[in-house]
Amino acid sequence: MSDQAVLSPPLQDMIQQVGTTDIIVGVLTLNNAGTIEQVVKSIVEGLQQAFSGASAIILNCDGGSNDGTSEAVSRVASGAYPVWTISHTGVTYPGLAVESGLPGREESIRSLCTSVQRLQAKACLILEGNIRSMNPCWIDLLGKPVYEQGEDFVVPLYRRHRYEGTLVSNLLYPLTRAMYGKRLRYPSGGGYGLSGKLARELLKKPYWSEGATKVSLDGWMTTVALAEDYRVCHAFLGVKDQETKVGSVDLANVLAQTVGGILASMEEYEAVWERTKDTTDVPLYGTVESAPALIASPVQVGRMLNGFKQGLRDLLPLWELILSPDTLSQVLPLGMQDAEEFRFPSDLWVQTIYDFALAYHDQVLHREHLLKSLTPLYLGRTASFVLETQEGDAVQVERSVESLCVLFEQRKPYLVERWRWRDE
Q1: Which segments within 208-351 are labelled E, that is strand?
Q2: Which segments of 248-370 are extended strands (E)?
Q3: Model pLDDT for residues 193-214, shown as the tens digit of each residue
Q4: CATH superfamily label, 4-285
Q5: Strand order in the sheet with 153-157
Q6: All structural domains of the chain with their residue ranges
Q7: pLDDT per residue over 346-377, tens digit each?
Q8: Are 163 and 295 in contact (CB under 8 A)?
Q9: Hey, which of 60, 64, 129, 182 would disulfide with 89, CB 3.0 to 4.6 Å?
Q10: Whole-number Å distance between alpha carbons of 381 and 379
Q11: Are β-strands 83-87 and 56-62 bridged in parallel, bridged antiparallel, or unpaired?
């Protein structure tokens, strides 16, 4: 796809004046006055320490800040590296659960990829302006794997409480791992490293014109990198402490966006994931630190179970269309279990997700309704995961995630056989 549509006048001016550069650091911001100085100081210091012989620019992609954020970016980096600001105000996608709460994020990353292409950059770092815990090491860990080691996509790992990110650990990561054969954790924001080659490839995709209203941008980029056999890796960045805005994101919308993104990509990359049999580790840069033993706040298991049982009452007609008779016959009795003894077996969870993938493929009902109806089942599985592991430590939690991943891989023939049969 041509990049002409995103060449706004500020972007054109920047490209004409810069000419070429080795590294582009994209900073995504929206009213981040409280954190942006530390972020930019870390960028400047990190570039000076890790890339002293390379040319670099800082491109501030701003969503319409009115608190002096962009001015602070220019002020802090002044004299060290050229700084350019591109505003993406008013770019929204109705119904989209915007990642990181940043309007215009899709257009910002498209502008960064365009800049990489036009300026012939070797590496692009994408960083979010609301990260309190950023330090200069992030630049080294996200940038050097691309710039010096030939990696194409660097996904961060963080030191997190054991029940943070259960959607990733119980669904998104096991599913993408089973589909594409790489043990790469589903991305959770904060920062990324992209090669020039991958950035140029992303620009060619139809996502920018038709996909942003439907799927997770981060998940889509990850799928392209995995399915098209780019070199992917992890960078361990330590603690992720970010400033969050007041408000909440609806879980059903998040599920529809993230899971929907994976299932939509399965349509495009069917030939890839059907022939993928085994999984392999990906390189890891940085030193992994153990997760805290205690969680930040109690997990509301009772509330999750209430949501699951409410789903049984309200969504049964939809689940009868989505789930196989065997799957449904195992799900229904779960509603009779006491809270302390509740268990959503891992093998049943895998079969449930594969049934949803098949129903999505067959379009048995409106896809958004299908995806949102997964929410109570996810709540039930998450409650079970917490109850199963609450007496253990972080190592046990990780073992449980690994066991679930192996089940997704072992049960994959269930999906492949039925997918092919329905296509015939």
Answers
A1: 232-236, 284-285
A2: 284-285
A3: 999 999 999 999 988 876 444 6
A4: Spore Coat Polysaccharide Biosynthesis Protein SpsA; Chain A (3.90.550.10)
A5: 83-87, 56-62, 23-29, 123-128, 191-195, 153-157, 232-236, 284-285
A6: 4-285, 301-423
A7: 999 999 999 999 999 999 999 999 999 999 99
A8: yes
A9: 64
A10: 5
A11: parallel
